[in-house]
UniProtKB/TrEMBL annotation:
Record domain Acyl-CoA dehydrogenase/oxidase C-terminal: where: 282-451
Protein name: 3-methylmercaptopropionyl-CoA dehydrogenase
Acyl-CoA oxidase/dehydrogenase middle domain mapped to chain residues: 163-271
Keywords: FAD, Flavoprotein, Oxidoreductase
Signal peptide start and end residues: none
Reactions listed under catalytic activity: 3-(methylsulfanyl)propanoyl-CoA + oxidized [electron-transfer flavoprotein] + H(+) = 3-(methylsulfanyl)acryloyl-CoA + reduced [electron-transfer flavoprotein]
Essential cofactor(s): FAD
All residue ranges annotated as the Acetyl-CoA dehydrogenase-like C-terminal domain in the record: 467-591
Keyword Oxidoreductase on entry: yes
Protein family according to the UniProt entry: Belongs to the acyl-CoA dehydrogenase family.
Length: 596
C-alpha cells in the first residue's frame, strides 16, 4: 500500500530560513506563530495527514461515494471519523479571524497544511478545502448577519461549504448561466436551476452544507454583468442558529469519474431553493472571485501534493526493486541485481520530480505569504507590491504546479514499470487523482489566458515589472558570491528569456490577439520556470547559511545538489518556451476547423 509522510522539516526550513517569516512579526497573527508554535502546528498537521488521512486514500478510491434513492450521499468508510479529527484539531479555522472562532494564524500556515492534506488524501481534503474557500468569500463579501450565521459553524467544521458555478452548457463561459433567482417579499430569493460537477455538493460528513451559488436575478442583464452570488443552505437556519426545514436543493446524481472517487461530484438541483444575496446585486463574479482565487492556489497545491506523494513512493520502490547492474559495476554484488536507484535514468526522473517539488513548495508558500502581506500589512506600498505578486502568481501556481504535478505523477508511476499500471500499487491513483487539478478551477489553458490577458497588462504591467526587478536585484546581490554562482549564473539567461517574451508580446500581441492566445501556455510555463529557479536561488542561499552554521549539513548539501540539478536541467527550458512564443500564431491558426 502506498504511504505518505508530510514534509514537515522541509516546510519549517522554507518558512523560517528561506522566507524568514519572523520578519513579518509586525503583521497581525504572525507574532503568534513563533518557532515553537510553527513546529507544533506543522508536526501535528503532519501526523494527522500521515496517520489518519493517508491510510484512507486507497480504500476511499476503491469504495467511492454512493448516492441513496433519497438523494443523500455516503462517503467511504472511515471518512467521517477522519473529517471529525480534522475539524476537532481546529484546522478549518487556522487562519480565520478569532472573532469567528478561528485562530488568526498566517494564511501561509494553512497553505502548508493544504500541501500535507493534498498529498495524504486529495479526495478527503476537498471537503474541508471547499469549506475554507467559502469561508474566505463570506469573510470578504458576506453581510455581518451572514458572517455571524454561517462562519462559526463552518470554522468549527459542523457545516461545510461548496462552490456552485458550473451548469451543463456553461463551464468556462459563466456568462451563459441560466440558474434564475426570483426575489421574495422577505428579502430572500428563490433559486431554480441545475448545477453540475459540484464537489462535495452532498455528503454525510457535516450537519449542514452551505452552498455558494451564482445565479441571474430575474430581469438582470445577460452575460457576466448580470451574475449575482447567493448563499443557499441545505437546511434553513432558524433565528436562534438551530437547523430548520430542508431547503429545496437536492443532489440529483453523482458522477462516475476518472479519479478523486471519494469526493462526491454532484448534480445539484435547485427547485425554488431559498437563498440570500451575498455582496451586491449583479456583482456576483467579484464575490465569487475571492473563493476562486483562494481555490486556485489551493488547487495548485493539490498538484504539488500529488507530485510529492507519488515521488515518496517511487523513491521507496526504486531503493527496493532489483533489476540490472549499475553502469559503473555492481553496487550490490551479493544480490542477483542492483536496486534500480543506481541507474542514471531512474535518478534523472527522481531528481527532476524532487527538484520541482521543493521549489514548488517554496513558491506556494511565498505566494501565500504575499496574500498575508496584502491582507494584513499596514504599509500601503508593501500591500500593493504583495497584491501585485499574488495576482501575477495565482495562475502560475494553479497552472504550472498542476501541469507538472500530473506529469510528475506519471513519471513516478513509470518507476514501477508494469506494476505502476496495476491498481494495487496505488500509483495509478496518483495519476488519476492529479489529473483533475489541471481541469477544475479554470482549466489550465484559461489560467494561461488570465496571465497573458489580464495579469500581465494590468496597471501597465506593474506586477511583471516588480517581479523582474526583484529577481534582477537578487542576481545582482548574489552574483559575486562564489558559492551562489551555480544558482545565480543560470538565472540571468532565464530572466532574459522572460523579458524577451514579454517584450515580444507587447510589440506583437496587441495588434494580433491570436499571438497572445497561441503563446499563453508557454508564457505561463516560462514565468513558472523562472520563478521556480528564483525559489531555488533563495533556497540555496538559506541552505548555504545553515550549512555554515553547522545545521543539518547533510540535508542542506542535498538541497544544494537538487538546486544545481534544477539550474542545469530544468531552467534551460525557458529558451524553448521563448522560441515557441516568438513563433506567433500563423501556423496554429492556419487550418480551417474542417481541415483538422
Ligand atoms: C471532478 C470535478 C469537480 C468539479 N468541481 C466543481 C465545483 O465544485 N464547482 C463548480 O462550479 N464546478 C466544478 N467543476 C467544473 C469545472 O470547474 C469545469 O469543468 C471547468 O471549469 C471547465 O468547464 P467545462 O467542463 O464546461 O469545459 P469548457 O468550458 O467547455 O472548456 C473545454 C476546453 O476548452 C477550453 N476553452 C474554453 N474556453 C476557452 C477560451 N475562451 N480560450 C481558450 N480555451 C478555452 C478549456 O480550457 C477546456 O480545455 C468540476 C469539474 C470536475 C470534473
Amino acid at each position: 500500500m502506498p504511504s505518505y509522510r508530510a514534509p514537515v522539516e522541509d516546510t519549517l526550513f522554507l518558512l523560517e530560513d528561506v522566507l524568514a517569516i519572523h520578519r513579518y512579526d509586525n503583521l497581525p497573527g504572525f507574532s503568534d506563530a513563533s518557532s515553537d508554535v510553527l513546529r507544533a502546528v506543522l508536526s501535528e498537521g503532519g501526523k494527522l495527514a500521515g496517520e489518519v488521512l493517508a491510510p484512507l486514500n486507497l480504500s476511499g478510491d476503491r469504495e467511492g461515494c454512493t448516492r441513496n434513492a433519497d438523494g443523500s450521499v455516503v462517503t467511504p468508510k472511515g471518512f467521517k471519523q477522519a473529517y471529525d479529527a480534522y475539524a476537532a484539531g481546529g484546522w478549518m479555522g487556522l487562519s480565520v479571524p478569532e472573532e469567528f472562532g478561528g485562530q488568526g494564524l498566517p494564511h501561509v500556515l494553512s497553505t502548508a497544511m493544504q500541501d500535507f492534506v493534498s498529498g495524504a488524501n486529495l479526495a478527503l481534503g476537498m471537503y474541508p478545502g471547499l469549506t475554507q474557500g467559502a469561508i474566505a468569500a463570506l469573510l470578504v463579501h458576506g453581510s455581518q448577519a451572514q458572517k455571524e450565521t454561517y462562519l462559526p459553524k463552518m470554522v468549527e467544521g459542523a457545516w461545510t461549504g461548496t462552490m456552485n458555478l458550473t451548469e451543463p452548457h456553461c463551464g468556462t463561459d459563466l456568462g451563459l448561466l441560466k440558474t434564475k433567482a426570483v426575489p421574495n417579499p422577505d428579502g430572500s430569493y428563490s433559486l431554480t436551476g441545475t448545477k453540475i460537477f459540484i464537489s462535495a455538493g452532498e455528503h454525510d460528513l457535516s450537519e449542514n452544507i452551505v452552498h455558494l451559488v451564482i445565479a441571474r436575478i430575474e430581469g438582470a442583464p445577460a452575460g457576466t454583468k448580470g451574475i449575482s452570488l447567493f448563499v443557499v443552505p441545505k437546511f434553513l437556519v432558524n433565528e436562534d442558529g438551530s437547523l430548520g426545514e430542508r431547503n429545496g436543493v437536492t443532489c440529483g446524481s453523482i458522477e462516475h469519474k476518472m479519479g478523486i472517487h471519494a469526493n462526491s461530484t454532484c448534480v445539484m438541483n435547485y427547485d425554488g431553493a431559498k437563498g440570500w444575496l451575498v455582496g451586491q446585486e449583479n456583482r456576483g463574479l467579484n464575490a465569487m472571485f475571492v473563493m476562486m482565487n483562494e481555490a486556485r492556489l489551493a488547487v495548485g497545491v493539490q498538484g504539488l501534493g500529488q507530485s510529492e506523494a507519488a515521488y515518496q513512493n517511487a523513491v521507496a520502490y526504486a531503493r527496493e526493486r532489483l533489476q540490472g547492474r549499475a553502469l559503473t559495476g555492481a553496487k550490490n554484488p551479493e544480490r542477483a541485481a542492483d536496486p534500480i536507484i543506481v541507474h542514471p535514468d531512474v535518478r534523472r526522473t527522481l531528481m527532476q520530480i524532487r527538484a520541482f517539488n521543493e521549489a514548488a513548495r517554496a513558491l506556494a508558500l511565498w505566494t501565500a505569504l504575499q496574500s498575508d502581506i496584502a491582507h494584513r500589512s499596514q504599509d500601503a506600498t508593501e500591500r500593493q507590491l504583495a497584491d501585485d505578486l499574488l495576482g501575477l502568481m495565482t495562475p502560475v501556481v494553479k497552472g504550472v504546479l498542476t501541469d507538472r504535478g500530473f506529469a510528475n505523477a506519471v513519471e513516478a508511476q513509470q518507476m514501477f514499470g508494469g506494476h505502476g499500471y496495476i491498481e494495487e500499487w496505488g500509483m495509478s491513483q496518483f495519476v488519476r487523482d492529479a489529473r483533475i487539478a489541471m481541469i477544475y478551477e479554470g482549466a489550465n489553458g484559461i489560467q494561461a489566458m488570465d496571465l497573458i490577458g489580464r495579469k500581465l497588462p494590468k496597471d501597465g504591467g506593474r506586477a511583471m515589472m516588480a517581479f523582474l526587478t526583484e529577481v534582477q536585484t537578487f542576481i545582482k546581490d548574489h552574483g559575486e558570491d562564489e558559492a551562489m554562482k551555480p544558482f545565480v549564473g543560470p538565472l540571468q539567461p532565464a530572466l532574459n528569456d522572460l523579458q524577451a517574451a514579454v517584450m515580444w508580446l507587447m510589440q506583437n500581441a496587441f495588434t494580433k490577439p491570436d499571438h497572445a492566445g497561441a503563446g499563453a501556455t508557454d508564457l505561463m510555463h516560462l514565468l513558472g520556470t523562472v520563478v521556480l529557479g528564483y525559489m531555488w536561488g533563495k533556497i540555496a542561499k538559506a541552505a548555504l547559511a545553515a550549512k555554515a552554521e553547522g545545521r543539518d549539513a547533510e540535508r542542506m548539501e542535498a538541497k544544494l545538489v537538487l538546486g544545481r540539478f534544477f539550474m542545469e536541467r530544468t531552467l534551460p527550458e525557458t529558451s524553448l518556451r521563448l522560441a515557441r512564443i516568438k513563433a506567433g500564431s500563423e501556423t496554429t491558426m492556419a487550418l480551417s476547423a474542417e481541415a483538422f
